[in-house]
Design a protein that fits this description.
The structure holds two protein chains of two kinds. Chain A is α+β, with helices and mostly antiparallel strands. Chain A has six helices and ten strands. Chain A has one domain: Aminohydrolase, N-terminal nucleophile (Ntn) domain (Glutamine Phosphoribosylpyrophosphate, subunit 1, domain 1). In chain A, the strands form two sheets. Chain A has a five-stranded antiparallel β-sheet with strand order 8-1-2-9-10. Chain A has a five-stranded antiparallel β-sheet with strand order 3-4-5-6-7. In chain A, helix 4 crosses helix 5. Chain A is globular, with a radius of gyration of 18 Å. The N and C termini of chain A lie far apart (about 75 Å). The relative contact order of chain A is 0.19. In chain B, the strands form two sheets. In chain B, strands 1, 4, 5, 6, 7, 8, 9 and 10 form an eight-stranded antiparallel β-sheet that branches. In chain B, strands 11-2-3-12-13 form a five-stranded antiparallel β-sheet, covered by helices on one side. In chain B, helix 5 packs antiparallel against helix 6 and helix 6 packs across helix 7. Chain B is α+β, with helices and mostly antiparallel strands. Chain B starts with 15 loop residues before the first helix and ends in a 5-residue tail after the last helix. Chain B has seven helices and 13 strands. The chains are: A alpha+beta, B alpha+beta.
Chain lengths: ~230, ~270
C-alpha cells in the first residue's frame, strides 16, 4: 500500500497560486478607471460576443479576466444576487461592496478547499451617488479584496500596464480622456490598439437608471480619436 | 447573501421565477385565501398608430364603492421597448409588474440579448397563469401589454385573460371595468394612419368616456392636477407623455364636446 504524499500547507498554497497566476497571465489585460463623470472599463478583447465586461445592476458593472467559463459563471451569480436583493429590499440597497465580498468569500473558499483554484481576477465597479462613493473593488483569485479610487489593471501584463497607468493617469478627466489613457497603457509603446481589438463600456449618469452602456462602432472611434481633433 | 451558484444541471438560466423558487424566495403571486376587499385598479387602453403604440390608464383605485387611491399609476415601462398596464387587484398587479420588469432586465443581463416582443408577451402570460389560484379567490389581474417590435418595425398590442390566455390585437384594446366604453370610443375614432398626437388624443377621449360611464374609472382631476397617464412606445423606445400635454388634451376634448352640444345643458 502506498502512503499519500505529505504536502506542506505553504507548498500547497504556493502551487495553487502559481497555477492560478499562470492561467490568468495567459489572457489579455483589462483596465477599469474612474473619470470625472463616470467609470470607463476597457479590455483587450477581439471577440464581440464573449464579453469580459458586463452589467450587473443599475450602477454596478463586472469585469473579469482569466478563464471565460469561470468568470462568466461568477458574473451570472452576481446578476442573480443583485436582482434578488433589489426585489427583496429596494433598488438602492444593491451595492457593490457586498457583492465584491461575496465574490471574495467564494474565491477564497475555492482556493483553500477546492481541487484547483479559479483562474480569474475580477473588478466590481460602482458608480457613486449621494450615499455611496464611486469605487472599484478588485478581487483576486485567492479572495484578496482591495478597493481603489483611481484605477485597477487586471490580467497578463498587469504589472507593466499598471506602471504605465501610474505615470499617465490623471484623476478628474473626462470619460473619453480616461479611455485614451487606458488604451495607451494597454497597448504599450510598441503598438496601437484599434477599436476592433477593444471591448469598451462605461458606467455614466447620463445613461439613465441603468448607467451601464457598451461603447461600440462610430461612438468608440470618436472617443478614441477626439484627442487629435 | 451567499452567491446564488447552482450545479450545471440545475441552473435556472435566465429565468427569474425559477431562480426565486430555487432560492426559496417566496413570491407574492400564486396561492392565498384572504376574504377582504382589496383595492382595485381599472381601465387601461392601448392603440396602434403610424409609428408605434400609445398606452393610457386612469388613476383611480377603488375598494368596493370607495375610492382607495386617486393617483395610482397603472402604465409602466416593461423595458426599453415595451409597456405594460394593469387592471384588477392593485397589490397583486403591482407585484406582477415589478417581477415582470425585473424578469426582462434579468434575462437581458444574463443572456446578453433582449427577448423578442413575442417572448416578452409570453413571459407575461405565464405570470398571469401562475396567478390563477388567486384569480379564483377574486384577486384577478388582467394586464395589457404593448411594445415596438424592432424586427418588424411596428407597434403590437397583446391582451390577456385570467387563465394566462394571450391574444394579439390588431389595432386597439382596453381592459378593466371601463374598458368597454374606452374601446367603443377608440373604435369609432381609429384610422390606420393616425399620427402620434392624434393617437394620444384618441386614448384620452377613450378614458374620458370610460370615466363618464364607469364609477370605478377616474377622469381628469384639474383641482389636484391628477391626469390619466399616457405613454408612447416607438422605435426610440418608451416614454411618458408630458402631463401638460395630457391636461391640454382633456381641455380641448371638453371644449370640442361642449361646442358640439351647442353649449352647457342638462
Amino acid at each position: 500500500m502506498s502512503m499519500p504524499y505529505y504536502v506542506s500547507p505553504e507548498q500547497r498554497m504556493k502551487d495553487m497560486a502559481e497555477y492560478a497566476q499562470k492561467g490568468i497571465a495567459r489572457g489579455r489585460s483589462l483596465i477599469a478607471a474612474i473619470a470625472r463623470d463616470g467609470i470607463v472599463l476597457v479590455a483587450e478583447n477581439p471577440s464581440k460576443t464573449l464579453h469580459k465586461i458586463s452589467e450587473i445592476y443599475d450602477r454596478i458593472a463586472f469585469c473579469g479576466v482569466g478563464k471565460y467559463n469561470e468568470y462568466d459563471q461568477l458574473r451570472v451569480a452576481g446578476v442573480r444576487q443583485a436582482d434578488m436583493k433589489g426585489l427583496a429590499y429596494s433598488r438602492e440597497d444593491v451595492d457593490a461592496r457586498s457583492l465584491a465580498n461575496a465574490y471574495a468569500q467564494y474565491l477564497g473558499h475555492v482556493f483553500t478547499e477546492g481541487i484547483k483554484p479559479l483562474e480569474v481576477e475580477l473588478v466590481v465597479a460602482e458608480l457613486g451617488n449621494a450615499t455611496r462613493e464611486t469605487r472599484l473593488y478588485h478581487v483576486a483569485y485567492e479572495g484578496t479584496i482591495t478597493d481603489r479610487e483611481d484605477f485597477v489593471v487586471l490580467g497578463g501584463d498587469a504589472g507593466q500596464i499598471a506602471d504605465r497607468m501610474d505615470d499617465t493617469y490623471v484623476a478628474g478627466v473626462s470619460i473619453a480622456e480616461a479611455l485614451r489613457t487606458a488604451v495607451a497603457a494597454l497597448a504599450g509603446p510598441d503598438r496601437t490598439l484599434g477599436p476592433d481589438l477593444l471591448e469598451v463600456a462605461v458606467l455614466a449618469e447620463h445613461n439613465g437608471r441603468r448607467c451601464f452602456a457598451r461603447v461600440v462602432g462610430a461612438e468608440l472611434e470618436a472617443m478614441l480619436a477626439s484627442a487629435e481633433a | 447573501m451567499a452567491l446564488p451558484l447552482f450545479p450545471v444541471t440545475e441552473d435556472p438560466g435566465p429565468n427569474l421565477m425559477a431562480l426565486l423558487e430555487k432560492s426559496g424566495t417566496t413570491v407574492a403571486i400564486g396561492g392565498g385565501d384572504h376574504p377582504f376587499t382589496a383595492p382595485h385598479a381599472t381601465t387601461v387602453a392601448a392603440l396602434r398608430y403610424r409609428g408605434g403604440v400609445v398606452m393610457a390608464g386612469d388613476r383611480r383605485a377603488t375598494a368596493g364603492n370607495l375610492i382607495a387611491h386617486r393617483a395610482m399609476e397603472k402604465v409602466f415601462p416593461a423595458d426599453r421597448y415595451a409597456a405594460v398596464a394593469i387592471s384588477g387587484t392593485a397589490g397583486t398587479a403591482m407585484e406582477m409588474v415589478k417581477l415582470f420588469q425585473v424578469q426582462l432586465e434579468h434575462y437581458e443581463k444574463v443572456e446578453g440579448t433582449t427577448l423578442s416582443l413575442e417572448g416578452k408577451a409570453n413571459q407575461l402570460s405565464q405570470m398571469v397563469r401562475s396567478n390563477l389560484p388567486m384569480a379564483m379567490q377574486g384577486f384577478i389581474v388582467i394586464p395589457l401589454f404593448c411594445g415596438f417590435d424592432l424586427a418588424r418595425q411596428v407597434g403590437r398590442i397583446f391582451t390577456y385573460d385570467g387563465t394566462g390566455g394571450r391574444y394579439e390585437e390588431a389595432d386597439y384594446a382596453a381592459t378593466g371595468s371601463g374598458g368597454r366604453d374606452a374601446r367603443s370610443t377608440i373604435k369609432a375614432g381609429f384610422r390606420e394612419d393616425l399620427s402620434e398626437d392624434e393617437a394620444v388624443d384618441l386614448a384620452i377621449a377613450g378614458l374620458y368616456d370610460a370615466a363618464e360611464e364607469d364609477s370605478a374609472t377616474g377622469g381628469p382631476d384639474p383641482l389636484r392636477g391628477i391626469y390619466p397617464i399616457v405613454a408612447v412606445v416607438d422605435n426610440g423606445g418608451f416614454r411618458y407623455v408630458a402631463e401638460d400635454v395630457i391636461a391640454s388634451g382633456f381641455e380641448r376634448l371638453i371644449a370640442r364636446r361642449s361646442a358640439e352640444r351647442g353649449g352647457v345643458g342638462r
